[in-house]
Design a protein that fits this description.
heterodimer; A: Ubiquitin-like (UB roll); Fumarate Reductase Iron-sulfur Protein, Chain B, domain 2; 10 helices; B: mainly alpha; two-stranded antiparallel sheet
């Protein structure tokens, strides 16, 4: 019993403090842990008891805020839903999310990602707006099933860390923003897919994707961003060949 | 005092060779095998065009050890490519809704594999009869 309470595990954490460090380097910490302890709790215990300067993002502790994504033994995961018991005996390598610039320790730059999700018109654009008195925009369960999983995205960016093509081309719109785009394009109440078309063309649109598919495996919410990206390749190709037939191009 | 100096890690040029992406790399490489087999079939077709002697030489080459080993390798590439392609298939199509519910991706993959096996079987039976 006493032994069980005194399990220890070694964590190698990639640290980078811009004021002191030329480049990131691994620092070893050993923590005492219990069966139900998550990687996030281990980081918190290090910050509390060993090194107050360790920086990482977190908020909800229950895999819904999307703040604590990081590379754990080379795989993008949420620190709050990854448990030390599954990583024992260690040592465990913890690094900031791959493919993003490091601000400090485990904190990465999110500005580009935020710009991308802002750029895709992330709201329902109805064909005709109607007054409140006219009632709701109705939707059948089947119409909802067509987009519903794409609305589960928590913007944790694990899919971007899993995507080697985003690593190669940081301007690639990427899996997360495409999942959000498809969430609206696929919504029967929305009529904005024409406006969103320009964002999916070219290498910075969907065509950087080579269907590696690891974005969907990394997703903690089963959003399947690879599906969102790849079905929009069809949309982009159709538009490329058929845009000459569109009415507004013949006015 | 805060000092912003974001550190950009460079992606390894050999990222595709890492264990993480091994499955993907094998899938893409097996596509080369499919292309090579296409070339073998085309060479056979071309030998038919060039006459009976050329065709006999092509059929003769098919039974050499080199050709047999090549075909075994190409068969393995073909099977891997077929399997992984059908696993990718549901990712490339819009969500299929039947009776108000999404059809599971596994069902789509299995149906496609089943259809491909039926077609292959029909071809083999057709060729043997």
């Amino acid at each position: 019993m006493a032994d069980r309470d005194r399990l220890t595990i070694e964590l190698w954490i990639l640290r980078y403090r811009p004021a002191q460090d030329e480049e990131p380097h691994f620092v070893s910490y050993t923590v005492t842990y219990t069966e139900e302890m998550s990687v996030l709790e281990a980081l918190q215990s290090i910050k509390d008891e060993q090194d107050g300067s360790l920086s990482f993002r977190w908020s909800c502790r229950m895999a819904i805020c999307g703040s604590c994504g990081m590379m754990i033994d080379g795989t993008p995961k949420l620190a709050c839903s990854t448990f030390l018991r599954d990583l024992a005996p260690g040592p465990v390598k913890i690094a900031p999310l791959e493919n993003f610039p490091i601000e400090r320790d485990l904190v990465v730059t999110v500005a580009d990602f935020v710009k991308k999700i802002e750029s895709i018109y992330p709201f329902i654009m109805p064909k005709e707006t109607k007054p409140v008195e006219a009632g709701e925009y109705l939707q059948t369960p089947a119409q909802m099933a067509a987009y519903e999983p794409f609305s589960d995205c928590i913007n944790c960016m694990l899919c971007y860390a899993a995507c080697p093509q985003f690593g190669a081309n940081p301007d690639f719109i990427g899996p997360g923003a495409m999942a959000l785009l498809q969430r609206y394009n696929g919504d029967s109440r929305d009529a904005g897919s024409r406006e969103r078309l320009d964002l999916i063309h070219g290498e910075d649109g969907v065509w950087s994707c080579t269907a590696v598919g690891l974005c969907s495996e990394a997703c903690p919410k089963l959003v399947d961003p690879a599906n969102a990206v790849n079905q929009n390749k069809t949309n982009s190709a159709f538009d490329f060949f058929l845009r000459g037939l569109r009415k507004e191009n013949h006015s | 005092m805060s000092e912003r100096r974001p550190y950009v890690r460079r992606q390894s040029r050999l990222w595709w060779a890492s264990r993480t992406y091994r499955g993907y790399t094998l899938r893409e490489l097996s596509g080369v095998g499919v292309a090579v087999y296409g070339a073998v079939l085309l060479a056979g077709l071309d030998s038919v065009r060039r006459g009976p002697d050329a065709y006999a030489a092509f059929v003769g080459w098919l039974s050499t050890p080199v050709a047999i080993v090549l075909h075994l390798v190409l068969l393995a590439a073909m099977l891997l490519h077929g399997l992984t392609w059908f696993q990718t298939l549901p990712k490339t199509m819009p969500r299929l809704i039947v009776g108000g519910q999404a059809v599971p991706q596994k069902t789509i993959t299995n149906a496609a594999i089943g259809l491909a096996m039926l077609c292959s079987l029909a071809l083999v039976i057709g060729a043997l009869s």
